[in-house]
């Protein structure tokens, strides 16, 4: 194809270039620069998120255990009210202290306390609500999680909490179907479609506010879990999951991703589109859902420069490959044919691009 | 007043452009131009080409492994062995034709290396050699070592390290060297095995003739593997009532390794990602110890409070270290 050298741009380079082309006025440069530096300062690195999340989960579990086992509460209604009181207190404190000029030490510790208390409050709410409603149905836990997540998502501006809460709701739905299912709960295929649409819409639409970014990640994580479990689904549950539907949806998703990466419907060139669409539809028959999803995540992660999505794709691909090898529903020979077929398809697309690249660019 | 150095250090990536557009800082025309600047079509061509090649090769090789694992009776042994050898010869010829300077040639060599393993496995199936599994991996590792040395390809090295590690693990288990008391020594031995490659990586990766080695993900992969192995002796020490000498010695080694890693990645070759991994590793072990001590209501309270304190301190340290490293890089 070509020998391309990877050039990395700084935000200053981008602004200078936009200004030189007359796309950003001189008078607006300072304002945009300030916006960029403020956003960079506000961004919490992923390792800090992991630390905070880990600490908050452990500490809140210990405190909840202490209060429950210690016999502080007996009545479910009191547990529920206590949970609501903590949540309201944390949200109010968070709303009134957004711009406090704290030192990094105090600010870090306060954030840790805040997330821990919020998780405690949510746990008490879920326990209280579930016991008040009816302990016999696991769906009450999901309902409680959904209510408390919906109630706090907008008001509590901590990405970590938003991510964990949304993921907990989705994981709870999945767990209910996977481990506690009964014959009436066979809507796993619908759940997959909802997860897919949610993840695709939140990650690919250009004007989705950043408040929904944690939700997008939660959808992607839960989608990966559903797809990963799909190959051994029958082992856990009687509910039937349609692999054909999964492959069809994911193949269509790949086609939509191609359109997105091309720069939208108007920028799509018809020949490469037809080739790619044919490839994606063939992959529908030749591949496993996990491999298709990993493929999509890798492309999307690279396209959006999103290390979380890219990392998830990198992790999912070998995992699904190993899982596929051990899948019991098809023989090793069939697996072999599917894998070789998928590999050859990818090579064919590459060969097509190699020989048509120049003419496509000219067009 | 905007610090220009600060702007220079913030990457101009797609995420930033989308955020500027989302918050009305730039027009859609400016967004499209910026995105095209950051990610020109030529770059896509390059990336897509590599992406298809890498995934295609992986799937094809996985398919070949599955095919021979199926052990189809309808195919005679001669055909099986001959077909693998022909494929291997073709792969080596492909590597020679494309040259090892190009990704195509490197992938052909990788395919040939995988086929060596497939050949050894099928050979074992056909002739029922009765050899231990570790011998297969040992032969495989020895057979492809020369190719690995000349390959100048990280993928090939990763494959060789995995194969050699499987050989050592199986040998430990199958040769009778493994005893329960030596579990911690086994883990430390494995960690040191990966540590050798981490050391080699750190030594060579900055050098001009080793530019092919310049991939940070390899460092992360090795560090994560080493830390997960080092965690086992510590966990055994925490839960063991009466630790034996081997356990105590291995824990001293683990401590020394962690201190050396911390010093190296904090002062010699600063890396906030590795420091974060080390700090998270330490926090997890402290938490395990706290959980082991939970036996009363007071311990629950103290456990919760100490967790908050430890994590807040660790986070604070990482923030400070990150600032310091960024300042030194300027």
Give a written overview of the molecule.
With 363 residues, chain A is an all-alpha fold. Chain A has helices at 11-20, 29-42, 46-69, 76-96, 104-133, 139-153, 159-179, 188-204, 213-230, 233-236, 243-262, 270-286, 289-304, 307-326, 332-362. Chain A has 15 helices and no strands. Chain B is mainly α. Helix content of chain B is 81%, strand content 0%. Chain B is flat, with a radius of gyration of 25 Å.
What is the SS-derived class of chain B? mainly alpha
> What's the total number of strands of chain A?
0
Poorly predicted regions of chain B are none
Sheet with the most strands, sense and barrel status of chain A: none
Judging from the principal axes of the Cα atoms, what is the shape of chain B?
flat
Reading the helices and strands of chain B in chain order gives HHHHHHHHHHHHH
Helix count of chain A, per DSSP?
Answer: 15
Let me know the average pLDDT of chain B.
85
User: Given the C-alpha coordinates, what overall shape of chain A results?
Assistant: flat
How far apart are the termini of chain A?
A: 17 Å
Radius of gyration of chain A: 24 Å
SSE map:
The complex is a heterodimer of chains A (363) and B (330).
Chain A: H1 11-20, H2 29-42, H3 46-69, H4 76-96, H5 104-133, H6 139-153, H7 159-179, H8 188-204, H9 213-230, H10 233-236, H11 243-262, H12 270-286, H13 289-304, H14 307-326, H15 332-362
Chain B: H1 4-9, H2 14-22, H3 28-38, H4 41-70, H5 77-98, H6 103-127, H7 133-151, H8 154-174, H9 183-204, H10 216-239, H11 245-268, H12 272-292, H13 297-329
């Amino acid at each position: 194809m070509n020998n391309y050298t990877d050039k990395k741009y700084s935000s200053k380079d981008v602004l200078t270039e936009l200004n030189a082309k007359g796309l950003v006025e001189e008078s607006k440069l300072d304002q945009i620069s300030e916006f960029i530096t403020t956003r960079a300062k506000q961004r919490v690195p992923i390792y800090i998120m992991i630390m905070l999340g880990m600490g908050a989960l452990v500490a809140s579990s210990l405190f909840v255990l202490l209060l429950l086992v210690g016999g502080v509460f007996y009545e479910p209604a009191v547990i529920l009210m206590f949970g609501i009181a903590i949540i309201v207190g944390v949200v109010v404190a968070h709303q009134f202290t957004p711009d406090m000029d704290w030192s990094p030490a105090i600010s870090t510790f306060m954030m840790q306390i805040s997330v821990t208390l919020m998780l405690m409050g949510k746990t008490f709410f879920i326990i209280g609500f579930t016991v008040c409603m009816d302990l016999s149905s696991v769906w009450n836990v999901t309902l409680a999680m959904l209510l408390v997540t919906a109630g706090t998502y907008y008001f509590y501006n901590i990405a970590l909490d938003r991510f964990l809460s949304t993921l907990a709701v989705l994981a709870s739905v999945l767990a209910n179907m996977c481990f506690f299912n009964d014959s009436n709960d066979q809507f796993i295929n619908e759940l997959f479609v909802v997860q897919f649409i949610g993840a695709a819409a939140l990650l690919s639409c250009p004007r989705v506010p950043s408040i929904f970014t944690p939700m997008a990640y939660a959808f992607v994580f839960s989608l990966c879990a559903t797809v990963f479990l799909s190959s051994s689904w029958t082992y856990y549950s009687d509910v039937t999951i349609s692999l054909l539907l999964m492959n069809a949806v994911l193949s269509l998703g790949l086609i939509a991703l191609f359109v997105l990466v091309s720069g939208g419907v108007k920028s799509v060139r018809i020949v490469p589109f037809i080739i790619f669409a044919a490839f994606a539809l063939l992959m529908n028959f030749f591949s496993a859902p996990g491999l298709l999803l990993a493929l999509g995540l890798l492309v999307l992660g690279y396209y959006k420069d999103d290390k979380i999505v890219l990392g998830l794709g990198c992790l999912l691909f070998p995992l699904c490959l190993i899982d596929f090898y051990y899948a019991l529903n098809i023989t090793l020979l069939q697996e072999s044919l599917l894998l070789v077929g998928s590999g050859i398809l990818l090579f064919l697309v590459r060969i097509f691009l190699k020989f048509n690249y120049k003419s496509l660019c000219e067009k | 007043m905007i610090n220009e150095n600060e702007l220079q250090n913030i990457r101009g990536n797609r995420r930033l452009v989308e955020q500027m557009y989302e918050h009305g800082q730039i027009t859609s025309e400016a967004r499209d131009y910026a995105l095209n600047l950051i990610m020109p079509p030529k770059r896509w061509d390059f990336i897509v080409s590599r992406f298809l090649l890498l995934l295609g090769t992986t799937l094809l090789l996985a398919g070949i492994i599955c095919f021979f694992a199926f052990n189809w009776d309808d195919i005679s042994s001669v055909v099986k062995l001959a077909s693998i050898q022909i494929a291997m010869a073709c792969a080596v010829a492909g590597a020679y034709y494309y040259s090892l300077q190009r990704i195509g040639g490197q992938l052909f060599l990788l395919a040939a290396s995988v086929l060596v393993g497939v050949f050894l496995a099928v050979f074992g199936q056909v002739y029922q050699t009765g050899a231990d599994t570790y011998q297969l991996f040992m032969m495989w590792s020895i057979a492809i070592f020369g190719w690995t040395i000349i390959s100048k390809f990280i993928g090939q090295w990763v494959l060789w390290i995995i194969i050699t590690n499987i050989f050592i693990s199986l040998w430990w288990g199958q040769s009778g060297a493994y005893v329960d008391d030596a579990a911690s020594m086994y883990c430390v031995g494995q960690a040191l095995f990966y540590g050798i490659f981490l050391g080699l990586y750190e030594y060579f990766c900055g050098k001009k003739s080793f530019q092919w080695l310049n991939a940070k993900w390899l460092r992360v992969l090795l560090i994560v593997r080493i830390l997960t192995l080092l965690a086992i002796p510590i966990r055994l020490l925490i839960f063991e009532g009466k630790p034996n000498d081997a356990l105590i010695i291995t824990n001293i080694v683990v401590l020394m390794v962690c201190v050396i890693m911390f010093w190296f990645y904090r002062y010699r070759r600063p890396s906030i990602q590795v420091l974060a991994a080390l700090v998270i590793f330490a926090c997890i072990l402290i938490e395990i110890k706290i959980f082991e001590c939970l036996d009363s209501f007071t311990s629950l309270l103290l456990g919760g409070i100490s967790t908050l304190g430890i994590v807040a301190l660790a986070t604070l340290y990482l923030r400070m270290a990150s600032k310091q490293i960024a300042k030194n890089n300027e």
